[in-house]
Amino acid sequence: MTLTTDQQQIIEKIGVFFEKKGNQPILGRIIGLLMVIEEAEATFEDIQNALFVSKSAVSQALTLLQSQNKVEYITKPGERKRYFRLKIRNWKVDIQEDMKGVFKFNNIVEEIISTRSDSNMEFNSYLIEVSNFMKFMEAELPKLVERYKNQLK
């Protein structure tokens, strides 16, 4: 598999993006690779060779990406190889599930707010604002999803 300079740059941008979010850059690079190649799937060896990384780095990254439900693999009849691809087919459900996690965390934020004293009202007001925004998002997300579905009709 030969990548163009543009593809390599995009892959690197995605790797840097993931790194800035506190993840290993290899996670973003694998996702980037699977996004830019025309086949939208690659074998373990393809990934290793295209990204110039070790077997262990690819193995650990793919294991993590699969556990995060971001990557899956398929097999093809008559072949022993696994083909890794992004698990993007159910992106709407994935986004909603991710947001549910954020909304559940807001329950903890509200619990924290209820236990804090009035000694640091400035900080408390920030927590309250975050919590209020999360409640707003939770109420509005179903409406946004519905508007998006209607737009596709």
From TrEMBL:
<dbReference type="InterPro" id="IPR036390">
    <property type="entry name" value="WH_DNA-bd_sf"/>
</dbReference>
<dbReference type="InterPro" id="IPR036388">
    <property type="entry name" value="WH-like_DNA-bd_sf"/>
</dbReference>
<keyword id="KW-0804">Transcription</keyword>
<keyword id="KW-0805">Transcription regulation</keyword>
<dbReference type="GO" id="GO:0003677">
    <property type="term" value="F:DNA binding"/>
</dbReference>
<protein>
    <recommendedName>
        <fullName>HTH marR-type domain-containing protein</fullName>
    </recommendedName>
</protein>
<dbReference type="InterPro" id="IPR052362">
    <property type="entry name" value="HTH-GbsR_regulator"/>
</dbReference>
<keyword id="KW-0238">DNA-binding</keyword>
